[in-house]
């Protein structure tokens, strides 16, 4: 009985070897046929094939270059839009100081001083606005949205209608184009 299994195992190994030899022969014949076909091509057919391959290569390279140009143009536009961002962010504390100074000057009753500071303040705001700076509109009583405001703290709501809403705006927020460069700082009702 053991002899039968050994003989069967030996036969299957021999069959595998024969199958492997047959597969290798088929592959060699296919390669030889492909080489024969290429050798049978006329010089014009070879050249037209090479020309088609070069045209395809050229078109792919051209398309890649066009994509590169489009991408760099888009990046350049984005850079120009936000190039002033650092300078404008540095100027925001000065604008805040102007706002606080105006509040205090209004308390004094010196009209000429108030008028002069208001003129400078408006000119400064106009200059920043001309460079693309915009105020983020957040008012007391608006629903709090974490995408457009930063909650500094929560306090018990003074009334039921202010629960989950903005109770006070501590610092104004600004955006440059569509990008918020400083989020407004607010107090929310609990």
Description:
This protein has 190 residues and is α+β, with helices and mostly antiparallel strands. The protein is built from 4 helices and 6 strands; from the N terminus they run ααααββββββ. A 3-stranded antiparallel beta sheet has the order 1-4-5. A hairpin with a 2-residue loop joins β4 and β5. The longest helix is centred in the first third of the chain and has 40 residues, at 43-82. The protein is elongated, with a radius of gyration of 39 Å. The N and C termini lie far apart (88 Å). The relative contact order is 0.08.
Q: From the alpha carbons, calculate the radius of gyration and give it in angstroms.
A: 39 Å
Largest sheet: 3 strands, antiparallel
Outline: elongated
User: How many alpha or pi helices?
Assistant: 4
Beta-strand content bin? 15-25%
Order of helices and strands: HHHHEEEEEE
Oligomer: single chain
Please count the beta strands (DSSP E, at least 2 residues each).
6
**Could you list the spans in which at least 5 consecutive residues all have pLDDT below 50?**
1-11
Overall pLDDT: 83
Structural class: alpha+beta
Question: Helicity level, as a percent range?
Answer: 55-70%
Q: End-to-end span in angstroms?
A: 88 Å
Biggest sheet, spatial arrangement of strands? 1-4-5
């Amino acid at each position: 009985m053991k002899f039968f299994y050994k003989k069967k195992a030996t036969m299957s190994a021999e069959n595998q070897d024969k199958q492997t030899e047959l597969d290798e022969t088929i592959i060699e014949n296919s390669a030889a046929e492909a080489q024969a076909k290429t050798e049978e091509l006329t010089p014009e057919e070879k050249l037209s094939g090479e020309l088609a391959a070069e045209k395809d290569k050229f078109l792919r390279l051209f398309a890649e270059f066009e994509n590169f140009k489009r991408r760099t143009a888009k990046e350049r536009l984005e850079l120009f839009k936000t190039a002033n961002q650092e300078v404008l962010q540095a100027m925001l504390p000065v604008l805040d100081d102007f706002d606080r100074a105006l509040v205090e000057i209004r308390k004094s009753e010196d009209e000429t001083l108030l008028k002069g500071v208001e003129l400078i303040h408006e000119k400064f705001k106009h200059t920043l606005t001309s460079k693309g700076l915009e105020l983020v509109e957040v008012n007391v009583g608006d629903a709090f949205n974490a995408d457009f405001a930063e909650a500094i703290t929560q306090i018990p709501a003074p009334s039921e209608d202010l629960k989950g809403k903005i109770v006070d705006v501590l610092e104004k927020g600004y955006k440059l184009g569509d990008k918020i460069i400083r989020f407004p700082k607010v107090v929310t009702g609990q």
